[in-house]
Amino acid sequence: MLYRESGDFSSTYAEDSQTFPIKFDRYRYYFVLFVAIAVIPFMINDYWVNSLFLPFLIYAIAAIGLNILVGYCGQVSLGTGGFMAVGAYACYKLMTSFPDVSMLIHVLLAGLITAAVGVLFGLPSLRIKGFYLAVATLAAQFFLVWLFNRVPWFYNYSASGQISAPERTFLGVNITGANTQAWATYLFCLMFVIFSAYVARNLTRGSVGRKWMAIRDMDIAAEIIGVNPLRAKLTAFAISSFFIGISGALFFSIYLGAVEVGEAFGIQKSFLVLFMIIIGGLGSIFGSFAGAAFLVLLPVVLKIVGVDWLGWPTDIVAHLQLVIVGGLIIVFLIAEPHGLAQLWRVAKEKLRLWPFPH
Amino acid sequence: MPEQLAFALEVTANGLMAGVLYALVALGFVLIYKASGIFNYAQGVMALFAALTLAGIMDGQVPFSHLINAVFGTDVHHFGWNVPAFLAILLTMVVMIALAYAVQRLVFRHLVGQEPIILFMATIGLAYFLEGVGDLMWGSDIKSMDVGLPQGINTWIDETTFEALGYGFFIDNLDIVASIIAALLVIGLVMFAQYTKQGRAMRAVADDHQAALSVGVSLNFIWILVWSLAGFVALVAGIMWGTKSGVQFSLSLIALKALPVLMLGGFTSIPGAIVGGLIIGVGEKLFEFLIGAPFLGGATENWFAYMLALIFLVFRPQGLFGEKIIERV
C-alpha cells in the first residue's frame, strides 16, 4: 500500500508538526514542485501562460492573502480589489521612480506598502464585526479606486489615466513590457507563489496563526485566554494585504501590462477572490490554490465548450457563466461549506483507512 | 451668498429624494435580516430582476429567447403583444413570489443553522445566479421602463421657489412620487407587522425562532412571506430606479449603496433604514457640492457613504437605531 499512517505514530515534535506527515504526500509535493519549476517552463507558450498559468498563479497569491484574513482570522473583507490596486499602483510608482532597482524588490515593497494601507483600513475591525466590517471594507474598495482614478500623481499624469508597465528585467531577462518570454514571466510569478504559500503555511500553523484562529472562533473567549485582539487582527490585515499587494503588483506589471483601475480592480475582483476561497475552502492553503484554479479554468472551459464547440454567442456563454458560478457557490455552501479542501481531506482520510475502514 | 445657499438647498432637497430611493432598497434588507438573520446581498439584483421581468412582460418578450435561439437555431423574440402596466406588475409579483418560494425551498432551508457569514455568502452566490438568469431570460440590453409614472421637472416647485428665492429648484416629479410611495410602503409594512396575524408571526420569528416554532408558527411559511415582501419592495425599487435611469446592470449596484444606509440606521430597524437613507442621500450630495466637486476632483459620491458609515460605526457599532449588540462567551 502506498498510503500509510493510520494512527498517531509520531515520536518527536518535528514529526508531529510536519506539513506532509505521509511520505506519499511529501513526494507528491516534491513532484508537483519539480513539474512546476523544471517541466512546465519548457512546455508552455504565450497562450497557455496568459490564459491559464499567470492568472492562476497571481490569483492564488491573492486567495492565500484573503484566506488568511477571512479563513483564518474570520474578518470578512470585500476590499481585495482596492488592495490589489494599491499593490499595482505602488509597483508602478516604484518602477518608474527607481528604474535601476530590481523588480523583486519593487514587488516586495509594493506588498509592504499595501500592508500599511491594509492595517489602516483594518483599524475599524477592532470595533466593528461581521457584516458591519464586510461593509466597512467596501469603503476601502471604493475609496482606493476613486483615489487612483482622481489623483493624477498616481498615474504619472498620463493622458489616458491608465498605467502601463515599462520594460524591466530580472536577472537580465525581460519580465515586463512587450518583449517577454512566456517562461520568464511564469517563473517570476511562480517564485512569489511558492514564497507566499510557504510563508502562509508556516505562519498559520505557528503561534500567530493559532491566535488568528482563536479570534475567528470566538474573539471574546480568545481575549480572555490572553490573545491580544488588536495585534492578532492587525497582523492578519497586514499579512493578508501584503500578499494581496504582491498579487496586485504582479497582476498589473507581469500579467496585464496596462491597467485602468476601475476596470481591473473593481468590486468584481473582490468578489472573485472571495469566491475562490469559498469554493476552495476557508482556512486552507491548498483550498486557495484549488479555488483559484477552479475559477480561472471555469471561464476558459465554458468558452471552449460554449463558443467553440456549440457555437453559441459569447454573451450567452458569459451569462451562463454567471449562473453557473452563482449556482456552484450555493451548491458548495449547502453540500460542503468547507469547500474543495474538505473534499480533499475526506479523500485523504479514506485513503489512510483503506482497506480497513472500521 | 444667497445664491450659493439656494444651490445648497436645492442639493439638499435632491439629496433627500435620492435618500428615499436608497431607503427603499435598504428596507428590503431590513425585512429579511430581521426575520431570518440573513443578510441578503441579492436585494439589489432582485430589484434588477424584478425590473427586467416587468419590462420584459410589458414588452411581450419571450423568456430565454436568446438561449432558445442559440440552442435550437430558431428565431423567436416577441409574443407580439403588449401587456398593460398594472397586469404586468401583478404578473411580476407572481414571479417574485415564485422566486421567494424557490429561494427558501432550494437554498435557505438547507442552510438553517449555519453561521451568518455562510448565509451571507450564499446570498452573494444567489445574486450572481439571479443576475445571470435575468440576463438569459430577458437579454442584457438596456431597457426603458414606463409604467406611467410622471417624470420631468416639477413646474410648481420651480415657479414657487423662483418667486421666493429668485432661483427655481429643479426637482423631478418622479422623485416626489417615489417619496410618497416609499412613505406609503413604510406605513403599510409597519401596519402589516403590527396589526395582522402574519405580521405578528413575522415579528415573533424575528424575536426568537425557537419560541415562535413552539407556539405553532410555521417558519417556512414566514420566511417565504418575508422573501416575497422583500421581492415586492425590490419590485417597487426596481420600478423607481428603472424609470429614473433605465433598466440595466448598474441597477443591481444600488444594493451596494444601500449597505452604508443600513449600517447608519442599524440592520434591525425599519425607521433606521429610512433615516439612514435620508442622511446618506443628503450627506453625499452636499459633500459633493461643498467639498467634493470644488476641491477633490468630483465623483466623491462613490465612496462618501461608506466612509461616513465607517467613521460613524467606530463610535456606535450597532448603528443609530439598531439593537445593542450584547456578546457573551
- The CATH architecture of chain B can be named as Orthogonal Bundle
CATH class of chain A: Mainly Alpha
Low-confidence stretches of chain A: none
CATH class descriptor name of chain B: Mainly Alpha
Major sheet of chain A: 2 strands, antiparallel
CATH architecture label of chain A: Orthogonal Bundle
Describe the structure in your own words:
Chain A has helices at residues 13-16, 23-43, 46-72, 80-97, 103-122, 130-150, 182-204, 207-217, 219-224, 229-256, 261-264, 267-280, 285-309, 314-335, 339-353; strands spanning 163-164, 169-170, 173-174, 258-259. By secondary structure, chain A is mainly alpha-helical. Chain A has a single domain (21-353), classed as ABC transporter involved in vitamin B12 uptake, BtuC (Orthogonal Bundle), CATH 1.10.3470. In chain A, helix 4 (80-97) packs parallel to helix 6, helix 5 packs across helix 10 and helix 13 (285-309) packs antiparallel against helix 14. The radius of gyration of chain A is 21 Å and the shape is globular. The mean pLDDT of chain A is 85. Chain B is an all-alpha fold. Chain B has one domain (2-315): ABC transporter involved in vitamin B12 uptake, BtuC. In chain B, helix 1 runs antiparallel to helix 10, helix 2 crosses helix 10 (219-245) and helix 8 (197-207) packs across helix 10. Chain B is globular and about 60 Å long. Classes of the chains: A mainly alpha (358), B mainly alpha (329). Chains A and B meet through helix 6, helix 9, helix 12 and helix 14 of A and helix 3, helix 5, helix 11 and helix 13 of B.
Features:
heterodimer, A: mainly alpha, ABC transporter involved in vitamin B12 uptake, BtuC, two-stranded antiparallel ribbon, 15 helices, B: 329 residues, mainly alpha
